[in-house]
UniProtKB/TrEMBL annotation:
GO molecular function: kinase activity
InterPro entries (UniProt xref): ATP-NAD_kinase_N (IPR017438), Diacylglycerol_kinase_cat_dom (IPR001206), Methylgl_synth (IPR004363), NAD/diacylglycerol_kinase_sf (IPR016064), YegS/DAGK_C (IPR045540)
PROSITE patterns given in the database record: DAGK
Domain DAGKc: 2-132
Organism: Herbiconiux daphne
UniProt protein name: Diacylglycerol kinase family protein
Source organism, top-level taxon: Bacteria
Keyword line: Kinase, Transferase
Xref: Gene3D superfamilies: 2.60.200.40, Probable inorganic polyphosphate/atp-NAD kinase, domain 1
Length: 326
C-alpha cells in the first residue's frame, strides 16, 4: 500500500493564527486523504529558503507558504525547478502573487482546499544577479516585480511599525518623501543582446506580473506564463509628467482597459512620453551609482549592476482545479 502524500507548511509566525491554522489544516488534509503535514517556522535570519529545502529533504509532495510576499518569494526560490508544487496561504498586506493569479484572499479554508485538492499550473520565475554597492554579488528569485528607483526608495523609507498598523497606507508618507528626490537613475542596459543603450529614468520596474495592491495595473500586458518579462520606465519631466503617468496607470490601465469600449477609446498607442514599456527575456544593466533595489516588495540593499532573466515554467503553483481545467 502506498504511503499518503505529505505537505509541508512553511509559515511566518507573525503572520498566522497558528492554533486556528493547525485545526483547519488537520481537517482538510484528512478530508483529502493526505498524511500529517510537516510544520516548519521561518525566522528573521531565514525567511523560507532553508525551511523549504528541509521540507524537500523530508520528502514533501507539496509546500504551502503561509505568510507575506517575502515568505512566498523565499519558498519559491527554494522550489525552483524542484518539481514540487507551491501552494499559497495569503497573509499580510501585499499578497502580490495571489492577487495576480486571482486566488482567494483571507479565506483559509478555500486556500487549503486549493492546496490539497487543486491542480498544478506552471508559471515563469524571474531570476536576478545583483552586484551590490560594496561589490558583493547575490542571486535571488522573484515572482512579481523587481524595481530600482522610486519604488525601492519608497520601500526603504517606509516605517515598518506604521505599515504593521495601517498596511499600505503607510506608503503614502514614504511616497511624499521620495517624490521630493530629484535624482534620476542613469542606466546603461542591454535587452536580449540587442546592443547597449543609455537612459535616464526615475524608476525602472521589471515585472513577471502586472498588478499591484489597490488594483493598480502597472504592466497591462504582463503574464506569468509567457516566457518574458515586461519592463516599464518612469521618466516624468516635472508635474505634467507625473500627471501623464497617473492618468495612464489609474485611468487607462485601471478603467478603460477593463472594457471593450474603453479599449477602443484608448486606441493602439500605449506610450506616453513619461512612461515607456519594453518586453524581453534577459536584461543586463549598469548604473552610474549604487541605487536601492527591491524584489517583490522587499528591499535588497543597493545595486550597481544587475542581470535578470526569465526561467519559463520553472515554478509549479497549485490552483483551483476548475480554473486549470478551464
Amino acid at each position: 500500500m502506498n504511503s499518503p502524500r505529505v505537505a509541508a507548511l512553511v509559515y511566518n509566525p507573525i503572520k498566522v493564527d497558528l492554533d486556528a491554522l493547525r485545526s483547519a489544516v488537520a481537517a482538510e488534509e484528512a478530508a483529502a486523504g493526505w498524511g500529517e503535514t510537516i510544520w516548519i517556522e521561518t525566522t528573521a535570519d531565514d525567511p523560507g529558503q532553508g525551511q523549504t529545502k528541509q521540507a524537500l529533504e523530508q520528502g514533501a509532495d507539496l509546500v504551502i507558504a503561509a505568510g507575506g510576499d517575502g515568505t512566498v518569494r523565499a519558498v519559491a526560490e527554494a522550489l525552483h525547478d524542484s518539481g514540487v508544487p507551491l501552494a499559497l496561504l495569503p497573509s499580510g498586506t501585499g499578497n502580490l502573487l495571489a492577487r495576480n493569479l486571482d486566488l482567494t484572499l483571507d479565506d483559509v479554508e478555500n486556500s487549503l482546499q486549493t492546496a490539497f485538492r487543486g491542480a498544478d499550473r506552471k508559471i515563469d520565475l524571474g531570476l536576478i544577479r545583483i552586484r551590490h554597492g560594496d561589490d558583493s554579488v547575490t542571486q535571488h528569485a522573484y515572482l512579481v516585480m523587481a524595481g530600482l528607483g522610486l519604488d525601492a526608495k519608497m520601500l526603504a523609507a517606509t516605517d515598518d511599525d506604521l505599515k504593521a498598523k495601517v498596511g499600505w497606507l503607510a506608503y503614502v508618507k514614504a511616497i511624499a518623501q521620495v517624490l521630493r528626490d530629484k535624482n534620476q537613475l542613469r542606466i546603461r542596459y542591454n535587452l536580449d543582446g540587442a546592443g547597449n543603450r543609455s537612459v535616464r529614468a526615475h524608476t525602472i520596474m521589471i515585472g513577471n506580473c502586472g498588478s499591484l495592491p489597490a488594483n493598480i495595473l502597472l504592466l497591462p500586458d504582463a503574464a506569468v506564463d509567457d516566457g518574458e518579462f515586461d519592463i516599464v520606465l518612469l521618466r516624468p519631466e516635472g508635474f505634467v509628467g507625473w500627471v501623464q503617468i497617473m492618468a495612464k496607470i489609474f485611468w487607462e490601465n485601471g478603467v478603460l482597459r477593463r472594457t471593450a469600449v474603453g479599449r477602443r477609446l484608448m486606441g493602439t498607442d500605449k506610450e506616453v512620453r513619461a512612461l515607456n514599456y519594453l518586453k524581453g527575456k534577459e536584461l543586463v544593466m549598469r548604473l552610474s551609482r549604487p541605487e536601492e533595489i527591491e524584489l517583490d516588495g522587499d528591499g535588497f540593499g543597493t545595486a550597481i549592476a544587475v542581470k535578470t532573466w526569465v526561467d519559463p515554467g520553472a515554478l509549479i503553483v497549485r490552483m483551483p482545479a476548475d480554473e486549470v481545467a478551464a
